[in-house]
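A brief tutorial aside. Many learners find it easier to grasp structure tokens once they have seen a single protein encoded end to end. The record that follows does exactly this for Short chain dehydrogenase/reductase family 16C, member 5a. Read the sequence first, then the structure, and try to relate runs of similar tokens to stretches of the chain.
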Amino acid sequence: MNFLLETLQLIVMSMYYNIEAFVRLFIPFKKKNVTGEIVLITGAGSGIGRLMAEKFAPLGVSLVLWDVNQEGMKETARLVKEKGATRVHYYLCDCSDKAKVYRVADQVKREVGDVSILINNAGIVTGRNFMDAPDSLIEKTLEVNTMAHFWTYKAFLPAMTANNHGHLVSVASTAGMIGVNGLADYCASKFAAIGFAESVALELLATGKDGVKTTIVCPHFMNTGMFDGCNSKWPLLVPVLDPDYVAKKIIEAILTDQVYLLLPKSMYILMGMKKILPFKTGNLLGMYLGAFNFMDAFKGRVKKEA
């Protein structure tokens, strides 16, 4: 194509996609049928992982639960069976350990089949200021929140691309889109997780594997215990989210092939403002919203060692 034709194509398709996005605000897209899919959820032993498993339970999927907490997974398995799941499998797996991920992934393929919906949800937070955080905790944060995604994709993506069918879900955070005081390692891990997920999504499109869908989830902090003690300065504008609501919206995003999900909706505006406001104005807005003090009451914080 020449310059004029490609430019015309850009204008026409941009108009079409913008109209499509506008219509989607008022007319929800039809939800896809996931009956028979094999859904793997990391960090399924508690919190948002357990809630997502519960919401998948009545949809006719085979559930594969991963966690480092054996008892937590047993409880999740019991709960999802009560909600209608008939095919539930759970495996002890430390997602930060590449060798264990590959070993357990091979076991899943043998015993259950090829995973077609992969939800990278496992995550940890240290809650320490950067200079107070031991190197081991920083490394663990990056291993769980970021590197684990590399290993699970390596393990399960080949089957998806071979079939040109599947769905990759990255449960990241709004802390992966804007820095938060006291969360340097956590923010870095989530920024990296988002960048990784976006890049793989583009690789899939570039290679014509448009049947493998991707969803990147960026919720504000949730009331799951992970950020116990933290409160929002202005809860009506930027609330600490109810995990059941977040799980519901994630499932809806998967069923409608939504590429990005930011929660609450006010985050779409705030993230847009970050990109256009001067740096000092952005800092002023962050102070107003309480981003500088959000971690002050974090109950999981360990005081600086002498």
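Self-check: The chain has one domain: 31-289. If you spotted this yourself, you are ready for the next section.
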